[in-house]
Amino acid sequence: MQPDEESARGLAQVEGYLLLHAEVDEARRQARRFTEALPWLTTAQREDVERVYVADRMEVCREMLSRIAGRAVELRDEYTARYDQLKLRCVAVSVLTAGAVGGTCAVLALITR
């Protein structure tokens, strides 16, 4: 692996780590806000509800990221296929154009003799 690729991969991992922890912190804030609306909960119940809330939120986040990653792969494959098809068309048009120009030049050369 090239140094630039390793750096990019490392930065992506750090970014993912930071995003994950930001999501966990946000889930904890929302869990606290949720349990604050339930004043009758004991401290242990409040902690349990917050823990379950955060765990559920993280599972939803994982599922969503998994779907997004799967869709990104599908789109990459689709766009790669489209690009390959477009590239093939461009090459074909270029070859046909060069052939037509070459043929026209040959015909003109024969006519002008």
Task: Please explain how this structure is put together.
The protein is mostly helical. The protein has one domain (3-88). Helices cover 91% and strands 0% of the residues. It has two helices and no strands. It has helices at 3-36, 43-111. α1 (3-36) runs antiparallel to α2. The longest helix is centred in the last third of the chain and has 69 residues, at 43-111. The radius of gyration is 30 Å and the shape is rod-shaped. The model has no long low-confidence stretch (mean pLDDT 93).
Radius of gyration using CA atoms only: 30 Å
Question: What value does the average pLDDT take?
Answer: 93
Structural domain tally: 1
Strand share of the residues? under 5%
Uncertain ranges:
none
* DSSP helical segment count: 2
Structural class call reads mainly alpha
Q: Helical percent range?
A: over 70%
General shape:
rod-shaped
Number of strands: 0
**Helices and strands, in N-to-C order?**
HH
| Sheet of most strands | none
State the end-to-end distance: 61 Å
Supply database-style keywords.
rod-shaped; 91% helix; mainly alpha; 113 residues; 2 helices
